[in-house]
# Entry
Amino acid sequence: MNKEPNPNGLNRRQFLHTSAGFAASAMFFSLGTASSLAVPGAGASKNSIPSVTLNNGVPMPRLGLGTMTLSSEDGPQLVVDAISCGYRLIDTAMIYNSEKNVGIGIKQSGINRQEIFITSKLWKADMGYEGTKKGFQTSIDNLQTDYLDLYLIHRPNGGDWKGSWKAMEELYHDGKIKAIGMSNADFDQLDYLINNTDVKPAVHQIETHAFFQEDKEHDYLKQHGIQMEAWAPLAEGRNGLFTNETLAAIGKKYNKTVAQVSLRWHYQRGVIAIPRSHQKPHIAENVNIFDFTLDESDMTSIATLDLNKSQFPEWS
# Structure
């Protein structure tokens, strides 16, 4: 998703952790390594990040780092920090102006490129067949890589998105992209791609969180074998998410924060989440969700929070 203000959100520095015990666990839990990435179908050990197999057989981590806020000078170090915490999915986009920092951070981390799953996105200015080829080349140059694991059309509401898809299919067949998909598409666009193209979308990245659960979309994507991914899994703190009483009560039960409860909820729904943060403690906190399980009553309680309404009307 492109950049948006957060006038109604609560800065997580303002959120009071309810337990001193959590503070210790969030800061000092055992960090994952490259070898901790779970294979599809394998059980996740504490703090490891399992993967899901996309509809073309490509494994994708089920939790990653969003980088919309990592365009500043400390961006590369935060990418290094995330990798040291066990993250293997890094999500960026041309419009975020963070691709260069992501590329630098991956290089500085010393990790093998093949162990990192990089997503980037095509912006409107590069829409169309020729523009997509050029936009893709710019992105991989920025990222200092020769391929992408996932490439998405960012906001296909206008412009020649069909021409873009054709170009992405060619890049896919040439081995330049391992999987292709959409972000913020509508049902008509998805139906067209499912029924009229050579390569079907592997991922659809959309707004979804506790206040906008998108159950209809969730069911549609599962029916068609398309992986759902949340670009704002914590609603960017809007509508008071970080102080929500229901989420806080569930967190207290497990000695977890609201953010961790929310991300665990996405995980148990089968939705990939890419929370973003500009603070290392929160980057570490967000990955620490694999040592507890929400029970049926928790999932039912969170389901009642659905307002069936976007919290980002400026992008509707």
In short: Confidence is low (pLDDT under 50) at residues 1-46.
